[in-house]
Structure formats: structure tokens, C-alpha cells
């Protein structure tokens, strides 16, 4: 198996109040098959052997599903491969690379907790504001109680694929989260389960976006980094659903 030498310029920050700075380390035995997270694992092995505090970073499933692993690689959220999460970015896709710069997802809405770990609870607050539906508890309903057309169901599932990784926010020059919020609003607008809260949901989500994130100017950088391939049409859902609630009533 071929090995490669990779020099890593990596962000270190002890806590939210610390200024932080880049450190440079070298992994001599990296392989093209390694993912970015496996490269960080190998680096942490080296640091631990040297008695140095390992790099703090997030990961969970490492299968491109959970959205926890986001970092910025050479100024691009997740890495150089479009629409691919950090855990699925492999060194073989980077070409003849010998140096990487790895830092947290950068946004005013994502304060750094430690090293590469950021606080993305601003996105949770958007979901708390309007990303839920009321469902009557009790026995399981029959499969045909709520009918959803095939085309609507397929489109709703496409929007529901958003994993909430935050790369869209980090990629946006304004730090907007409209792709994320629009995916949720578009998803819930297409299914009958959330119909009763539709107007209230659009109004609440739009208010939360204004409070937590920057304005969207439809630059489109968000679309190129989104691992779920959420289309730019999701952005239109934010104001469409917000205006719908304003003109038709929050309970409609």
C-alpha cells in the first residue's frame, strides 16, 4: 500500500474565549484511501504518543448521514469534493496533495467550542421554532388514512434528506441558513401532517433565521457544498412560506 506525507496546518483553540491559532503537524504514513477523519485519527494517535493533547473534532456515523463531521478544508466547507461530507472526503480525490489546512466551520452563528468543534445550536433553534408537526397520539393509523401523492412524496423526501451539517451556512458569504431552513419548510409543506401549523411555521422559522443568521442573497455557494444535494429552490420556500403565513393567517 502506497503512503504519502501530508503536512497539516490545523486550528487549535482551547475554548470559546481563547483566540486560537494554527499549528503545523506532519503525518508521514498517510494513505490515499484515508478519509479526512481517518487522517485526523492518525494525527491524534501521533499527538497522544508524544504526550500532546489530541485535536478535538466531531464525528458519529462516518457514513455521510449524521452531519456531525463538518470541518473546513483549504477554505472550503467539508473539503474539495462537491456535495460530499468530510467523512467521505478521501485523500485520493485531492490529487497530488502534500499540505492541508483544516479549521472549523466558520460562521458568526457557529462559535468554536474547542479546536474543530463548533456550537451549531442556532440550527436547532430553527427546528424548535417550526420544524415540527402535531400528531395525535394513540394507536397507529391505517396506511391510507393520510394520502400523499407519489410525486409530492418523492419531492418531500428529497428535501427531507438535509442532514443539518451546517456547511451551507459556512459557505455563504452572509452566513445565511436559508437552504437548511427552506429544505425543512418545503418538506413539511408537501405533506398533510403539518398542514395545521403551516402558516405559523413559516412565520416562526423566518423570524428565527433573522435572529440567528445573515440574509440570503442567493449566491448559491451553499448548494455546491451540501452533502444531501438540496437544490437552490429550497431557499424560495423560506419567504414563500413566511409570506403565506402573513397573508393567509398563521393558523392556515
TrEMBL record:
The keyword Disulfide bond does not apply. Pfam families: Fer2_3, Fer4_7. The keyword Iron-sulfur applies. GO terms for biological process: aerobic respiration; respiratory electron transport chain. Keywords: Iron, Iron-sulfur, Metal-binding. Residues 153-182 form the 4Fe-4S ferredoxin-type domain. Residues 6-108 form the 2Fe-2S ferredoxin-type domain. Its cofactor is [3Fe-4S] cluster; [2Fe-2S] cluster. One of its GO terms (molecular function) is electron transfer activity. It comes from the Bacteria. Gene3D superfamilies: 3.10.20.30, Alpha-helical ferredoxin. Belongs to the succinate dehydrogenase/fumarate reductase iron-sulfur protein family. This is Succinate dehydrogenase / fumarate reductase iron-sulfur subunit.
